[in-house]
Design goal:
The chain is α/β, with parallel strands linked by helices. The chain contains seven helices and nine strands. The protein has one domain (2-124, 132-177, 202-232, 261-281): 3-Layer(aba) Sandwich (Rossmann fold), CATH 3.40.50.720. It comes from Goekera deserti.
């Protein structure tokens, strides 16, 4: 496929570009920052401007024609990077522009980055049950999370307007590169340090795998999947962590020793997603 990756210069975007290129896809990057590799065509564009979003997805001279698919990762990636209203305006507007430009360009496959935050993060109010899954929430607790919640609803409406569209939102956990793993053992000293997302993470390479699986998924409509690694960031068992930090929260099944508390069962079943990496292999 010819695939445009917005935000392809970011932490997750770099891994996505690398995987898609390795799989033989024709990949192009749209970002405000330069790409990390020279063998991929790239164009600098501010996707909060609708005209630039349309221009990027309908073809750019000397770069690419209309793509077969778009992977939309471009956004301010966390709360607090700008004042709340500015972050909200940027992220919601950018996502609307990309969804609308894809519709105008006749692109039938859109994969985009939603977020674990719609599940109720940070879990200052404990979840109703553990592991949490796609049926949890949405429970936005920040302007950033509210953006993602509204973007998920936008995706549903774009799919309703356009039968035949596949628009898949991936609720990514906290993205990690290999160099981030050196600090993981320090988390064991205080379980509250990572309680905010139930000790979950996603290796950027496994996030890229999920993106490719979503691109290859044979389905239509708006779909959502939680994407995390199979384990937690902790050496302590998941059952012990839940008992200590979430007493009284029902646990819906027996947990594996280090099993993720952000359920990836749906992604496994529907997308054939299976994490290939763990911090435990690097520390």
């Amino acid at each position: 496929m010819r695939i445009v990756v917005t935000g392809g210069s970011g932490k997750l975007g770099r891994a996505v570009v690398d995987r898609l290129v390795a799989s033989g896809h024709e990949v192009a990057v749209v970002d405000l920052a330069a790409p990390h590799r020279t063998d991929v065509p790239a164009t600098r564009a501010d996707l909060s401007d609708y005209g630039q979003a349309v221009g990027a997805l309908t073809g750019v001279d000397d770069r690419w024609g209309t793509p077969d698919a778009v992977v939309h990762l471009a956004a301010l990636p966390a709360p607090g990077l700008r004042p709340d209203a500015a972050l909200f305006h940027n992220n919601v507007t950018t996502t609307y522009n990309v969804f609308r430009a894809a519709q105008l360009a006749g692109i039938d496959k859109v994969v985009w980055a939603s977020s674990e935050t719609v599940l109720g993060l940070p879990f200052e109010t404990p979840p109703d049950r553990l592991p949490v899954d796609e049926d949890t929430g949405p429970n936005p607790e920040s302007s950033y999370s509210l953006c993602k919640t509204l973007e998920e609803e936008m995706a549903r409406q774009f799919a309703r307007w356009r039968p035949g569209l596949s628009i898949i939102g991936l609720r990514f956990s906290n993205v990690m590169d290999v160099e981030d793993y050196a600090r993981f053992p320090s988390f064991d000293a205080d379980a509250t340090l990572r309680r905010w997302n139930a000790w979950a993470y996603i290796d950027a390479r496994d996030g890229a795998q999920a993106v490719e699986r979503a691109l290859l998924h044979d389905g239509t409509g708006a779909e959502l999947f939680v994407i995390a690694n199979a384990d937690t960031v902790m050496s302590r068992s998941s059952a012990e962590l839940v008992a200590e930090q979430f007493p009284g929260v029902p646990v819906t099944r027996e947990l594996g020793e280090h099993e993720t508390l952000l359920s990836i069962d749906r992604a496994r079943q529907v997308l054939a997603y299976e994490p290939e990496h763990s911090w435990r292999n690097h520390i």
